[in-house]
Structure formats: structure tokens, C-alpha cells
Write a structure and sequence with these properties.
- The protein is mainly β.
- It has two helices and 20 strands.
- It folds into two domains: 127 residues, Jelly Rolls (Sandwich), CATH 2.60.120; 94 residues, Jelly Rolls (Sandwich).
- Helices cover 4% and strands 56% of the residues.
- The strands form three sheets. Strands 1, 13, 14, 15, 16, 17, 18, 19 and 20 form a nine-stranded antiparallel sheet that branches.
- Strand 13 and strand 14 form a beta hairpin.
- The longest helix is centred in the last third of the chain and has 5 residues.
- It is globular, with a radius of gyration of 17 Å.
- The two termini are 28 Å apart.
Amino acid sequence: MNVTIISNNQQTAKTANEGAIHEQKMLGFPQDNGILKPYSNIFYWSHLKTDYGSVISEHPHIGFEIIIYVLKGKVEVLDNINGKRSKLNEGDMQVLKSGKGMKHLEKLNSNSEILQIWLDPNFEEFKKIEPSLCKSQSSKFPVSISPGRSIRTLTGGTTPIVLDSQDVSIQVMELSTMDHRFPLNDDRIMSGYILDGELELDSKLVKKGDFFIVRNTEEVAMNVLKDCRIFTVLSPDKPSYPTYADMYL
């Protein structure tokens, strides 16, 4: 099992809007000079939080699928795809399929936190199509419960969210203190962000705020030391198409 851990203090920390927004970048932009570079079809991944609320002013996107997942509080997104304001609560998700170009702004209410992930659905092809969006409330996502674990599936299967990025599956895992094992094909990658708790991967300690990548294994073995909540993304080790990072970075 090949395990990479980017601890919280190794990630790129930034502030925006005069300190109103705090951003932790597990996978930042090239100019952030972070440890982690784009991999698989994952281009960007960050955790944003605000105590007092703030607005991220209107800005453009092209080609990527932009995921917004609300960890805490309330968020509003105004886009020029349909000109409507989307209101998202804790556990809700929105995917902006930016296609040949769109603009949006995000308003984070006080005491709110989000994850934002950029996926590459085949940038060169998708920058030619019309933009669109999809979203879902937390209550619409299926939950699988078994001894010691509860897993909420956000994409794939029967979920309301359909991604164009190849073979991406997103889940939120709640794991009790015990050993857990998850199958993983050796051509797939599991990426995870620890929202709460503490565990061991390959005898390496992973704590709240840490980020991990597991590859080259048929099984992921987690020794949960403190009850955990983990946001995970399964993705292909090597997508069948050239990504933006392959071509331009």
C-alpha cells in the first residue's frame, strides 16, 4: 500500500477578503507552490471557512467541474448559467460544469465551511460544451450503514449528482474506533481529508485536517484510533484522456 500524507501544517494556508476567509489548500494552484501537484483527474482541493461571513466576488471558470460541498453553515451561489441563486445548507452539494465558460460568485454566511474540488472531465473537450449545473440536498444522498460505519455516497450509482469526470466516486465516511478495510483496485486512487478523528494508514498517523492519498493496493486498511469522519474521493490512477495538467503544467 503506497500512502502519501500531507499534514495540516504542510498544506498551503491563505486568507482572503482582508482575513474574512481562511483557506487551507491540500492541492493548490501551481503558483501556490504546494507539496502536492495535480494528479489523476483531480486539479484542485481546498477547505474554506469564515467566522463572520464573506462574499467571493464574481469570477470565471472554464473546462473544469467545480464541486462545492457544505461542511457547516449556509452558502449561496449566484451563477450566470440560469441567473438564479442556489442556497446550500450543511451536507448539500453543487457541481458547476463550467464547459466553455461561466461566471459565479459565492456568499459564505457566518460560521460556514465548504470544500471546493476541481475535477478534470477532459478539459480540451469540455471547454467546447455549454455550461450546466446540478445540485442535491443532503437528505437525497443514499446512506449505507453497517457495524462500525456509516457511508454517505455523494456521486455515482443512484445519487442525484452525475459527474462527467471519469470514474470518480465521492463519499463521506463515519467510522468507529476499530479496524476497517475497503477494496480498491490497483488502478484506482483513494484520496481523503480527515474532517474529525484520528487513524493509522500503513502505521502512519493521520489526524483531523490531514490529507492522504492511497494507491497501488487492492485494499485500504484503516486503523481508526478516534471516531472519524472522512471525505473521500475515488478516482483513476491514470485517466484515459490527457488532463489539463498533462498538457499545460
